[in-house]
Structures are given as structure tokens and as C-alpha cells.
Design brief:
Number of strands: 0
Number of helices: 16
Shape: globular
Structural class: mainly alpha
Low-confidence stretches: 1-30, 32-47
Helix content: 55-70%
Strand content: under 5%
Mean pLDDT: 81
Radius of gyration: 22 Å
Amino acid sequence: MAQVSINADHGEWSLSTDAGERARLLQSPCVDTAPKSEQEASSGDLGRGTTSTLGAVFIVVNACLGAGLLNFPAAFSTAGGVAAGVTLQMGMLVFIISGLVILAYCSQASNERTYQEVVWAVCGKLTGVLCEGAIATYTFGTCIAFLIIIGDQQDKIIAVMAKEPEGAHGSPWYADRKFTISLTAFLFILPLSIPREIGFQKYASFLSVVGTWYVTAIIIIKYIWPDKEMTPGDILTRPASWIAVFNAMPTICFGFQCHVSSVPVFNSMRQPEVKTWGGVVTAAMVIALAVYMGTGICGFLTFGVAVDPDVLLSYPSEDMAVAVARAFIILSVLTSYPILHFCGRAVVEGLWLRYQGMPVEEDVGRERRRRVLQTLVWFLLTLLLALFIPDIGKVISVIGGLAACFIFVFPGLCLIQAKLSEMEEVKPASWWALVSYGVLLVTLGAFIFGQTTANAIFVDLLA
């Protein structure tokens, strides 16, 4: 593919040769990609990876699926039923896939290997900083959501172990939610978050995949053969208003957001070609769509409008099959939190080094102390917020709005800037169509983010 003349104003920051190196660490833990050499950068060759096409499909599916599936039944309820939920997902899938293809195109054009570096190179300094800030905020909010999920699932498991009736009060201090979340976080999450590298975490992704499929299977089985004590609420057949449909978008964005890790996956392929990548992401998104639709439809039809924002909380505590699903989710979240924290820390570190402009050789002595301090501050803040935010639905709504930026806004801006930078005398007819499509992506993403932010602010103020 021909190189596109795009913005590459990294020099404005007086960077050392590796000032953004830690920012490159923001990638899927399943992907091994070496940093670009000067020869590769000058020749326009990104190098050959080792990931097969089928392997790339699996990695993208793994990056997409996660604890976000627990919120899809509530999203169907918010959207106004099965028909509205399915239509909304199918419509958004077109934009989601096109965003992934745009990022691959811009990655080849800019010779960059991670999401934030592509945005930096294509859209310039200001947009790059906004992107990195959004990534740090998104990973921070997702870590809060993970801790809330741990507390939600532990409450149900402890209730079974203690043989307490549903909704019982006066639990002993060691069963208190704040204590169990804090104990689990300090014993497992903090030690896994401090190390400089997270290569060992790639083996934990298998648990996440198994847990996701198991949860989906249980929800489908429980719909086909429901327990007698489960009484569904009203089953909506149409949305209450068009605003209700848009309110379900942040949850869908949170579930399908794999764009941040998609760029290094693309560059890890043996044949990193945009056309091949289009087939990879289409197959991966169809698989993810099947999982999310199975969970969303069956979970919603099982409980109706009474479904909890975390669907597993709607099932009885004593159900052993669901208890196993809760244990899988806890294990998945315990291993996912350090990865998300690592990604956020890498962005913060990259921004720090950009501003400082110091060679890494002079920074090695202080790196460990700064990393430990960053980890402790991040960990304690997310823990405190998780302890005092009982409703995961609010957190998912906010970070879902940020996910819309990664899916729509930044890919749209990259497409617009890449096309505007093609200084050809005669532009093809498709040029205007692509620029217009980029504007549509930015507008849609900005609308979802703006609506989500407004709802989070005004709903809390009115409450």
C-alpha cells in the first residue's frame, strides 16, 4: 500500500528515541511484536509477525469478549426488547468492523504498531494526547467495574457457603462486601499489578475465554429449562422511546470494544494486509455477536424488565451451576484487572517520558520507584471508588461512552485526516464518500459519548 503523507509531529515534544516506548506496551498480552527498527521504519515495512489468520481471529475474539457480556440482558431491556436489541447490535456492528479496518489502514500508512501511536501519527499531537488520556480513563474505569463485579459475585457465593437466606441482613464482619473486595484485591490483584512485565498473563486469557463461553451456555440453558423459583418480569416488545434505544449503546460499545488492542494484533500477523484483516475482524465480530446475542436474548427473556444490570445477580444464590459461572467470572476479572492496569500505566508512563524528554538510560533508576507509586495510587483509587459505587450500571454507562470514542471518534478522525492528507490533484469519487463516512463516525461517537456523560451528570444531580 502506498504511504500516505500524514501528520507526524512527534518531534514537537523533543522526544528521545524511546520516549514513547512504554506506550508501545499497550497491546494485547497474547501478541508478541518487536519494536520497529530504523530500517523497517525507513523502508515502510512493518515486518512479518508470527500470528496466523485463524490465530488473529481468536485473539480479537478474546479481546472482545469479557465481563461486559453480563450487562447485555439489561441492555436489551433498556433498548425495548429483543427486536430492538438485535437491530441495534446488527446496525452498530457495521461501524464497529469498519473502525477496525480503518485502524489497520492507518497503521500501514503511518508505520505505527499501537492504537495511540496511530492516532498520534495520523491526527497530530493534540488528538494523540486526548486519545492517551481517554485510554487511561477507560482502563481506570474498567478496573473499577472489575472490582464491583468481584464484590457482586462474592456476595452470592458467600451467601451459599454461609447458608444465608436471600436478602438476609446482619452478616458477620468477614462476609461484609467492603471487607471481601478489599481482601481479594490486596491478596491477588495488587501483587499481579506491580511487576514491570505481564508476559505471564497471556496464559490467563484461556480462563477468560472458557469462563465467557460457560456463562453464555448457562444463561441459555437456564432460559430453556428455567428454575421454578425464577419469576420473569414484563417482556417488552417495543422501545419506550428512541432515546431508550440510544441508552443501550454504551453497553454494546463496552462489550465490543477491542479496537485499542486491534492494531498490534494486525501488525503481528504473518500477512498484515487490510483485505485479510477485514475478513479476520468480520469473522471475529460475528462470533462475538453470537455470544452477546445469546446472552442478551436469553437473559432478557428469562427475567424481563426485572433483569439486574449484572445478569448473574438475578439468579438464586444456591444455584450451583450459576455459582460456578460466578467463580469463572471472578477468576477472569482477577487476571484482567492487572492487564488493564498495565495498559493504563503504560500510557501514563509514555506521556511522562514525552514531557520529560529524557533518555531511558537516565530514567532506569527511578522507573521502579515511580512504577510502584503509580500502581499503588491507581489501585487504591479504584478500590475506594468500587467500595462506594454499588451500581455497576453507572460505571458501565460511563466507560461505554469512552468505548464509543475508540470505536467511532478516533477511527473517524484518522480516516478524515488520512484522506485529507492525500494531496492528489485528481481525487477519486470515493474520496468524498470516505471523508463523509469519517465525519459520520465522529458524529455518532460524539453523540453517544455526550449523551452518556450528560446522563451520568444530570441523573446523579437529580438523584
